[in-house]
């Protein structure tokens, strides 16, 4: 396995899938709903300027703007319903339970312990239904530019653990983003072809493994590229302590087919260091 710069590959991908990458525009109607008749100008500034313009400016993601806003409110001692609203907004913008907990713990030393306690009470309610696995998955999704996709149910019987699949492009060079939870890996398999064929993997986030039969496993990190010849038995998947995602490029060839084989056993996998 060799390490290559993959900027050109990623750039061409972005051009082919603009709708997937686009950030949904933030809209707000609370000002007009609650104060439209009493204070129409204030309602207009709240909905159209603050949320309609400032929150949609480039340079900071909605996730980061939510973190900044919550930190500012807590720092000013505002731990009432307005903070509750922004905590809900923060969750909708992708802020995880782990992130809000760490941020409020940090803020406590600067904004005051009572303010942090009050904020924690509200945050605990907002993130009450989250579980650690969902939290980690959401955090990993933000690490990469490609969508995590849907559960990979069609190929689940060939994977040990949970994986996710997102078809990025079906034109010219078909490829998908495949995401593995920690310890997830696919079975040994072979991409058969009488001419051409095979597969190319480009790691985009996390850490994972690639192994060909008879050779030691190789660690994959973001930017690594693996060229898999046709008719070579191999497997790939996540490291034990990390989520992992790679782009899988289908190499055209003649008489191509995939043959799925035995699992990578826990005994084999646990030997990897």
Name the descriptors.
alpha+beta, 273 residues, 10 helices, seven-stranded antiparallel β-sheet
Distance between the termini: 17 Å
Query: Roughly how much helix do the residues carry, as a percent range?
Result: 25-40%
Structural class of the secondary structure composition? alpha+beta
How many β strands by DSSP? 16
- Mean pLDDT level: 86
Strand order of the largest sheet: 1-12-9-14-5-4-2
- Tally the helices: what do you get? 10
Radius of gyration: 23 Å
**Major sheet:** 7 strands, antiparallel
Any idea what the shape is? Answer: elongated
Order of helices and strands: EHHHHHHHHHEEEEEEEEEEEEEEEH
Provide the β-strand percentage band.
Answer: 15-25%
Low-confidence stretches: 1-22
Task: Please provide a written account of the structure.
With 273 residues, the protein is an alpha+beta fold. It is 37% helix and 24% strand. It has ten helices and 16 strands. It has helices at 7-16, 18-21, 30-35, 40-51, 62-75, 81-92, 97-111, 113-126, 132-141, 266-269; strands at residues 2-3, 150-151, 159-160, 163-169, 175-180, 185-186, 189-192, 195-196, 199-206, 208-212, 218-220, 224-228, 234-238, 244-250, 253-254, 257-260. It has a seven-stranded antiparallel β-sheet with strand order 1-12-9-14-5-4-2, with no helix packed on it. A hairpin with a 5-residue loop joins strand 4 and strand 5. Mean pLDDT is 86; it is low at 1-22.
